[in-house]
Design goal:
By secondary structure, the chain is of the alpha/beta class. It has 3 domains: 206 residues, FAD/NAD(P)-binding domain (3-Layer(bba) Sandwich), CATH 3.50.50.60; 113 residues, D-Amino Acid Oxidase, Chain A, domain 2; 70 residues, no CATH class. Helix content is 38%, strand content 23%. α2 packs parallel to α9 and α9 runs antiparallel to α11. The two termini are 46 Å apart. 45% of the residues are buried. The structure holds flavin-adenine dinucleotide (FAD). Flavin-adenine dinucleotide binds next to α1, β3, β13, β16 and β17. The site of flavin-adenine dinucleotide has 40 residues, from α1, β3, β13, β16 and β17.
């Protein structure tokens, strides 16, 4: 059969990676079809709440100015939770404009509107069921109603990417490679948010907080649970969520919803969300396999991008920037294939070269052992050090008429009394190993 192509490129999935891929192809005057299963933009997607300016500007250029965001996010905290409070490190810069809070519906719908202006043909409410292959090449897609053909298909279908699995491009993730996250959008009035987080009325500042530690409430009993909690301020909403890896959830027979409920009660978090109304509850998976789980990124007629390729740096809560830039590189690689009229895996593998030159593969490579190492020392990070940091600062701040040298000495010796030296060495070794990996990079 001779193939009658409907487009030059088909993109499956209209999240950040898909829209970015489609836009970069359409900007060069090529015909692109962007297919999304959701009936309205962003309804199948979920995240914490911050998108990053550098990536958005790189993909959208002058159109970046058209985006309407809710708040600038320019205060970032890392807090280690304990039973009564927390130890918190904050960096704050009211002039910084490198991250913004925006709801997924607004992000995706604004991205799609811009892409449509450049000629992207957007088909919502349409599930791609299968890929169509001919002579070992992907040549199109099959939806519930139609078939569409193009010489290049870009898979931007997110963490589950059933289509990449269909092509056997992806090793199956194990439960330790996937985080399950749930998030509540908690509505408060704008003024209350401004008072609680010390924010300006004009939304030119906002807060992101990452919390570590499980040594509180009913979570105390789980000594080896690694969990991350995030909080973002929007205009009149606070986004609060938790993420735990699937292996930990099943090992401890834990329910992620109960973890979120327990976290909401923590004495540092409760006052921030008190009297708020939960207006949205969502759950999503995050790929955390990192560099070691990157799939085969291209095959004849096909490229994989964004979460579908596992491009996330969970340590830094970065995903949308990886998605936007990898999508753009996928689009550019499709253009090279179109120019050469050659859609082989060999031609499309220019995508790998582009990724290697970008921060995407460089970061994923330098962080290739970090998550695994953090999990292997989860008790230290979630329980032991938050407790010790708390004890240390209690000495620093308590005017209790006991000699400071005596208190610091006792604190120092408690390190070796409360924990085996071999365990302390393992922590130091793990910390050094991660630091060296990141320092030397690729
Ligand atoms: C809890 C949580 C918090 C996060 N916080 C942040 C954050 O603060 N900042 C940040 O930068 N990143 C964050 N991320 C990561 C970020 O959300 C993702 O990395 C990013 O959305 C990936 O974009 P994508 O386009 O590759 O995939 P997605 O956004 O998942 O989009 C995939 C799209 O494909 C569609 N699709 C799937 N299958 C099909 C099919 N067969 N047919 C048609 N359409 C299909 C889906 O409906 C979806 O719209 C977070 C993620 C989670 C889960």
């Amino acid at each position: 059969m001779d193939i009658k192509y409907n487009a030059d490129v088909i993109v499956v999935g209209a999240g950040p990676s898909g829209v970015s891929a489609a836009l970069s192809v359409a900007k060069e005057g090529k015909k692109v079809i962007l297919v999304e299963r959701a009936s309205y933009p962003g309804s199948k997607n979920m995240y914490g709440g911050a998108v990053y300016t550098t990536a958005l500007e790189e993909v959208f250029g002058d159109d970046f100015d058209k985006f309407k965001f809710e708040r600038v996010i320019n205060s970032h905290s890392w807090a280690f939770l304990n039973d009564e409070g927390s130890f918190e490190l904050t960096t704050k810069n009211d002039t910084s404009r490198y991250a913004y809070a925006i709801k997924r519906f607004n992000l995706e719908s604004q991205m799609i509107e811009i892409a449509k202006k450049y000629g992207v043909y957007y088909i919502p409410n349409t599930l791609v069921k299968n890929l169509i292959q001919k002579n070992n090449y992907v040549v199109g897609i099959k939806t519930e109603q139609e078939e569409y053909f193009a010489p290049v298909t870009i898979l931007a279908d997110g963490v589950n990417s059933l289509l990449a699995k269909e092509l056997n491009l992806r090793n199956n993730y194990q439960s330790k490679d996937i985080i399950l996250s749930v998030k509540e959008a908690i509505k408060l009035d704008k003024k209350t948010i401004e008072e609680r987080f010390n924010l300006k009325e004009d939304c030119t500042n906002g807060v992101s907080k990452q919390y570590f530690g499980t040594d509180f409430g009913s979570l105390k009993q789980y000594k080896n649970l690694f969990m991350m909690t995030f909080l973002y301020t929007f205009k009149d909403t606070v986004m609060l969520g938790v993420g735990v890896n699937l292996a930990d959830l099943s090992k401890n027979k834990l329910n992620i919803n109960e973890i979120l409920e327990e976290t909401k009660k923590h004495p540092d978090i409760y006052p921030l969300i008190k009297d708020g109304e939960t207006i949205e509850y969502s759950a999503h998976l995050i790929p955390e396999g990192g560099y070691k789980k990157i799939p085969k990124l291209t095959s004849n007629g096909v490229i994989i991008t964004g979460d579908a390729a596992g491009f996330v740096n969970g340590v830094h809560f970065e995903g949308t920037n990886f998605a936007l830039i990898s999508g753009k590189l996928a689009g550019e690689s499709a253009l090279v294939a179109l120019d050469n009229n050659n859609y082989s895996q060999n031609t499309l593998s220019i995508y790998n070269k582009k990724l290697e030159k970008s921060f995407i593969l460089q970061d994923l490579y330098s962080y290739r052992n970090v998550i695994e190492n953090l999990y292997s020392r989860s008790n230290s990070i979630s329980v032991y050090y938050p407790k010790k940091i708390k004890e240390f600062f209690e000495i620093v701040t308590s005017a209790n008429c006991i000699s400071k040298s005596k208190q610091f000495r006792e604190f120092f010796f408690s390190f070796f009394k409360d924990r085996k030296i071999s365990e302390l060495f393992k922590d130091v070794f793990m910390g050094l190993k991660c630091a060296l990996d990141i320092f030397f990079g690729k």
